[in-house]
Amino acid sequence: MKKVRVTRKYQVTIPKEVRELVGVRVGDELKVTVEGNRIVLESLKPVVGNPVDYLSSLSPKPSDLDAVKLVEESWHED
User: Fold this and answer.
1) 3-state per-residue secondary structure call for the chain
2) Predicted local confidence at residue 77, as pLDDT
3) Which residue spans adopt a coiled-coil conformation according to this UniProt entry (predicted)?
């Protein structure tokens, strides 16, 4: 449990450990709800586990792209 203090403007700072655990960054939007006497903050970003699995799921069919080759070719472009 982490304790935070409410400022005069009713602001709180999310502790670094919590921000890093959830992946909250400056500019992110959070959903605020009330559950009994609890204030609940939820990230609106999709939860991404393995980035490769996530990116692979964006295309309905497998791709034969060679990402390494594309990057190497881009180095030689003028």
Assistant:
1) CCCCCCCCCCCCCCCHHHHHHHCCCCCCCEEEEEECCEEEEEECCCCCCCHHHHHHHCCCCCCCCCHHHHHHHHHCCC
2) 66
3) none
Q: Report the CATH fold assignment for 16-75.
A: Pemi-like Protein 1; Chain: D (2.10.260)
How many other β-carbons are positioned within 10 Å of the β-carbon of residue 22?
16
A 10 A CB-CB count for 14 gives: 14
pLDDT tens for each residue of 26-40: 999 999 999 999 999
Please give the model's pTM, rounded to 2 decimal places: 0.55
Residue 75, both tokens: 């180095």
Q: Does residue 19 surpass a pLDDT of 70?
A: yes
Assign residue 10 a region (left: φ > 0; alpha: ψ between -120 and 50; beta: otherwise). Answer: left
